[in-house]
Records
---
Amino acid sequence: MTAGAAVLFDEPGPRGRRAMLASNVLGAVVVAGIAVWVVLTLVAKGQFDSGLWRAATDARAWQYYYLPGLRNTLQAAAVATVGAVVFGIVFGMGRLSSVRVVRWLSSVIVEFLRAVPVLLMMVFLNALFGVSLRGIVPDSAYAAVVVALVLYNGAVIAELVRSGVGSLPRGQAEAGFSLGLTRGQTLRSIQLPQALVAMLPAVVSQLVVVLKDSALGQLIGYRELLRTAQILSSGGGNPLQTLFVAAALFIVLNVVLSFVAGRLARRLSSRTSGSPHPGTGIGPAPAVTAPAAPEV
Amino acid sequence: MSEFLDLLRQYDVAHAFWVNLQLTFWGGLLALGIGTVLAVMRISPLTSLRWAGATYVNLVRNTPLTVIMVFLVLAVWTQLGVTLSGDFTSNFFNFAVAGLGVYHAAFVCESIRSGVNTVPVGQAEAARAIGLPFLAAARIIVLPQAFRGAVAPLGNTLIALLKNSTVAAAASVAESSGTMKTLIEFHPDYRWQVFVTFAIGFVVLVIPIGLATTWLSRRLAVTR
């Protein structure tokens, strides 16, 4: 049932179409009604006071709050993504290693990091960097955000590497062996490159998770977008307005990333024998997509 | 060692975890309710409902949970004066549950939709052939099979929800991440032990959920 909805109901006839049109109009009226009610409530509470919105959107707000916050968010997310990909490839290969100790150790580390909430890691690392490594780590909050994101998302990417290699057709490895390559050589020069191409869309989707989780830095005092928006609001008494702007920025960035991931998945399918699919945006992506329903 | 155990008792670490479990339970229930409605909307014949469901999912899925939590407490509660309970503590708790439910509903919806994709076309065609209208076909034929096919992704969402319940700290709920922060701040000598204790607490909670959902998804999978 991959085509989604179309098979769930009959093609409507003239009466059905009229009923659907009426329901659509009714639905639109209900949605518009809710929107009007929200706006009226906000107006009644003085939330559309132009001063509140001006303070949340003027040049000063952008120059001193949103843009520096956005820069910090993007910087942490970018550094963390690079680190997570390196971490993921190393530990993903570790889990595929032919040495049992390496395989076992990588599995324990990856499973542990996937089960611990990112926020706990950030809080702990912040304390660790701020006290034990004071002087070595200049900005403990920034370092804690980046390292925690690398550890968690690296573990997720390690799983992607492993499942990516696992989902390649068996013939790929067999072809490598029949050429006389060893297991390691086959992994490195035949399986891994295809698995990496196949997992690229899921990595781009994982960027959405990195960006969203970077907002956790707010809780340990890292001056990312949410934090600066909140600081701005404490001066103007307008958290609704400033958080609206911050949320809109996050949403636009993430929608663009999700779109890129979807496009990549379609474009790359000819470049690998694996199956590229965008991730789910929460936790690890499914190892293999649900088996295709048999066509009746 | 005994001093450390005393510390865990003194700060009532067990209760902190209990709060996370409660947040997960109520948040999960709310998310399952909203998510199922959203999933039905997204596969319904009505364009406006499909559009509304898709808009909700795309907006919420791309917003950080922390932003939602801070928004609920700072904007909805402080600025707009909406309260969810007369009691101060349960007010924050209810806001956190609302935030967790609203956020994870988008992922529940997508999980159920991926479950719908495991139902063969013939099932829906058979439902139409015996004259069932959309809602009946969805309720009697498609959704029961879809839920069984969606156990694994729903389990992933539940695990994410349990881990994300720590973000309730942004809504001023006293749960495990806040307790850990306090413990580390006031007893820095024990910070490794404290972190390992809390981390293992989550590992112990998360791994059974993963095993249970894997087992359930195999057991419930519709044999075709």
Note: The CA atoms of residues 56 and 118 of chain B lie 23 Å apart.
---
Amino acid sequence: MTVDNLENAEESFVNALEAELLAVADDDHVMGNRLCDWTGVAPTVEEDVAISNVAQDELGHAELFYDQVAEIREGSSQELAYERSPEEYRNARLLEAPFEDWADTVVRHYCYDVADAVRLRALADGEYEPIEGVAQKVLDEEAYHTEHGEVWIETLAADVEGRERLVAALEDAWADALAFFEPAGEVDPAEAGVYGRPLDAQREAFVERAGSTFESVGLSVPDVDPAAETGREGAHSDDLEELLAETREVYEQGVDVGA
Amino acid sequence: MLARNEPGFDLAAGEESFPPVEVDGELTEEDLWAALEDVEDPELPVSLVELGLIQEVRLEDGHVTVTFTLTYTGCPAKEIMERMIERRVETVPGVDSVTVDLRYDDPWTPADMHESAREKLGEAGFACPLAGGGVCDDE
């Protein structure tokens, strides 16, 4: 079954689709903003440019998916990005803490890129036809991000201190990374038809892909359960609240001159 | 507080006006394509038509729908480009209304660029994919 127009779609499908698209957009919004902190202070000059480009991509993806949500719930991407309280956000907790360590950034961003790619593939393979082209376009762009992450994992793993930091970052992040694949709405989005692949199978695909990258440099992923609080249910850390307050600061002064 | 899209916020402030269009006889989609050649990419000295970003122009009873795409989704000039397309089409005699539809179903690739775009970008100092002599010429 395919859905080409939401006007004829069942309400449960529309609700599940809206919740998942909002989770995608919130993930990109939070990740993009966090990555911006590295502009100008990354480990190399070339990386300053690279990571800023990646941040721009993630922010662009956030806008794109906020636009999709805005079409469903009659709002604007501005309101969705800046005018919601933290508990209304559906981003994964994996993305919330500030980046204070390069290895931690590489690990969490890489886990995010792989998880996001698995999810976007499932979204493109779901029942909502109009999203297929959008998801595919974003997937094509994300391929560069995962490649970027793999190069850095290799680079850090080849250095004694870098390797120690990678291990510590992986220990800290893995349970949150596993918790990425939880429903953002009331119903199971795969059962509703939003995704063409169940969330558990998406998680397995993530573990296989990300795990094999870490294993290729001799690191094993921690044997832990997904974190109990995922972020998808709206349970967030204070870090998110602080981040969102910062992103809203200029917007709230009314000097938004976007385009 | 001056908020976006509220009275006093002029999105078009500072935008240059387009040259007038003359339509010979009844308005056609070809006239609209020709008019759109005046819409340049905000960052490159090439038109959106030459770049292959305008994918479809449909004219139905005075209503025009322009379908376009972006080279990449994070393009910061998205809204500027939508607005420029809209403004350009509105200047064409016989046009009542315009819808600009941004789509990604048929994703842009460098192969969508017109030869003239490659030449102009080369002259402007851009290393252009698929320009003459490259390994991609067979594509």
Note: The first helix of chain A runs from residue 11 to 36.
